User: What shape does this take?
Amino acid sequence: QVQLVESGGGLVQAGGSLRLSCTASGRTISTYTMGWFRQAPGKEREFVASIIWSGPLTHYGDSVRGRFTIARDNAKNTVYLHMVSLKPEDTAVYYCAASGAYVSGTNEYEYNYWGQGTQVTVSS
Assistant: This one.
């Protein structure tokens, strides 16, 4: 089992930045595909970014590409999401997810484990 805990969310003004962290326990995630998703009120869960252990290869959702960066620190068993140039439409609960399979990680059904989420609110 893998337990995931997100942190780093909060309230920020448009144009600002935040760094989300996702720390795993229970198993080392060095060979896991890790991803970030988000869900705004009344909307479906949306893919944000993923990182595959080999490479490491990364993928980004169209709405965040060029503004968000996913990175991992295997020594700390942690994945990060660096967010800059934040917009009000980035407001959502952000979820971290882990998959033990070698997948792109762009689909939520590829993941076995999920965190509880952290709220990000961007004011205009």
Observations:
- The chain is about 0% helix and 50% strand.
- The longest strand covers residues 18-25.
- The chain has a mean pLDDT of 95.
